[in-house]
Design goal:
CATH class of one domain: Mainly Beta
Helix content: 25-40%
Number of helices: 12
CATH topology of one domain: Thrombin, subunit H
Shape: elongated
Structural class: alpha+beta
Number of strands: 28
Radius of gyration: 37 Å
Distance between the termini: 144 Å
CATH architecture of one domain: Beta Barrel
Largest sheet: 7 strands, antiparallel
Strand content: 25-35%
Strand order of the largest sheet: 5-4-1-2-3-7-6
Length: 497
């Protein structure tokens, strides 16, 4: 019995010890969980804290974006257009045409022309105010062939507009509306000071969403291309631009207009993929006054046909690595011809401003005023030379008259691939004609694409530098080309410059 009591006491003691251990362990676990939970909450709270200096910078930047947008929003408008197109309707088999549409036309065709109205949307920028008339700058393609145009303003009011003028070459147009209300004018910046990486804010009405603002950076400068083969050197931006943004403003962080949103490069969806392009505002500044005063844009004219030389031509003309544009043709009697510029001259500067390619040169010359005395710098025979040229107004009739384009052909050096395609001997030299311009002297005397020119007036022409040099030296005399065509040598192609 005592033994049993002793055993029972011992078991009871063990039970109490185990129970005490369980309670102690649970307490430790609870305390550990509480501490870890508390620390976790504190950690989460600490993670959520933004450093005050960083937040201050972000808020200042946000304030700057808001101020820039608010500065320009009242001067960016929505343009609504209505175009009318005529379309031939067709008879539906089994349905009598006359029942629905009346008699057939005189030719017996089972259809007739009907007019359809198409609505369009775009954007514009208020840039000038005279009396109660406001002038809005936009893209030419926004208004295109519109019969009706109205303007929708930030205060919700709409007004009919009058077309002042448009120019497809630069994709610019101007319209006006009358109002006694006061609307602010956009502040035009200096697009020559724009740099890659600058903030860029696009303001307009994409897809009809009035007064939308998107933000990005300037991705690149001097881009060419776009619809309509216009001559602008575009600002590229990744600020979201969509249909309806055309004609709207691209602004800098100060709220100054640096460009006119014009087109996007996109996939088949037609939506923004971060490749938007804007006309630099400096390309349009002079156009504003000209539109208002004359309804059209005037262009300076130099009178040359330009090309970007490939590597072989650049090496031959000693212009490899140089920036500029090659004058392959010159209009006889043009400012360039009168000033001494000749085919083969590589134009590098206009009034000491560097020429960065064909499109930039066209823009630079176009911006010159008729009558301006202009210094044109060229590389000729490997040396730099200056010519003083008196710019004239561009006349499309004269500029399009091929009869005055000298010499009227484009030649390239003979390469291995040309030798193979034309089945020429390995030692064949000279130049191959790759283009003959219709109605020019070269076309009139019978030169053909694929002809191999080996000489001029009996003088051997082995490369393109010798070709242009011989042309310059023979400007006042009768010329004939030594031509090889299909293995036959021809020397009877004579003409005077």
């Amino acid at each position: 019995m005592n033994l049993i009591k002793k055993l029972s006491s011992k078991n009871f003691l063990l039970f109490n010890l185990v129970l005490l251990g369980v309670i102690f362990g649970f307490s430790l676990a609870f305390l550990s969980f509480s501490c870890s939970t508390s620390n976790s909450v504190k950690a989460q709270e600490n993670t959520g804290l933004i450093p005050k200096n960083a937040l201050a910078v972000a808020e200042e930047l946000q304030t700057a974006f808001g101020a820039a947008a608010n500065k320009v929003l009242p001067s960016v408008v929505e343009l609504k257009t209505v175009s009318v197109r005529r379309q031939q309707t067709q008879n539906i088999p089994g349905i009598p045409w006359e029942f629905f549409f009346g008699p057939r036309n005189q030719d017996g065709e089972s259809g007739q022309e009907r007019e359809y109205r198409y609505q369009g949307l775009g954007s514009g920028i208020i840039v000038r105010h005279e009396g109660d008339t406001y002038y809005v700058l936009t893209n030419s393609h926004v208004i295109s062939d519109a019969r009706e145009i109205s303007v929708h303003l930030v205060d919700g009011k709409e007004y009919p507009v009058d077309l002042i003028g448009k120019d497809d070459r630069r994709d610019l147009a101007m319209v006006s509306f009358k109002s006694r209300e006061t609307y602010p004018l956009a502040v035009l910046g200096d697009s020559d000071n724009v740099k890659v990486g600058d903030w860029a804010i696009a303001v307009g009405n994409p897809l009809g969403l009035f007064s939308s603002v998107t933000m990005g950076i300037v991705s690149a400068l001097g881009r060419s291309g776009g619809p309509g083969n216009n001559i602008n050197d575009f600002i590229q931006t990744d600020a979201s631009i969509n249909m309806g943004n055309s004609g709207g403003a691209l602004i800098n962080i100060r709220g100054e207009v640096i460009g006119i949103n014009t087109w996007i490069a996109s996939n088949n969806s037609g939506g923004s993929v971060g490749l938007g392009f804007a006309i630099p505002i400096n390309n349009a500044k002079r156009s504003i006054g000209e539109f208002i005063s004359t309804g059209e844009i005037s262009y300076g004219w130099l009178g040359v046909s330009l090309a970007e030389p490939d590597r072989d031509i650049a090496i031959s003309l000693k212009i490899e690595g140089k920036s500029g544009a090659l004058a392959t043709q010159v209009f006889l009697g043009s400012p360039a011809d009168k000033g001494g510029i000749a085919p083969g001259d590589f134009i590098t500067h206009v009034n000491d401003r560097e020429v960065r390619g064909v499109n930039p040169l066209m823009l630079m010359v176009g911006d010159l005023r008729p009558g301006d005395q202009t210094k044109i710098t060229v590389i000729r025979d490997g040396a730099s030379r200056d010519f003083n040229v008196r710019i004239e107004a561009r006349n499309n009739d004269v500029a399009g008259d091929n009869k005055k384009l000298w010499p009227g052909l484009v030649v390239v050096p003979i390469t291995d691939s040309l030798r193979e395609s034309l089945r020429l001997d390995r030692n064949a030299d000279g130049l191959v004609v790759v283009q003959i311009i219709p109605e020019t002297p070269s076309a009139i005397i019978g030169l053909q694409r694929g002809d191999r020119i080996t000489g001029i007036n009996g003088n051997t022409v082995r490369d393109i530098a010798a070709f242009y040099k011989t042309l310059r030296e023979r400007t006042d005399r009768e010329l004939w080309f030594n031509v090889s065509r299909s293995g036959t040598t021809l020397e009877t192609m004579r003409f005077r410059r």
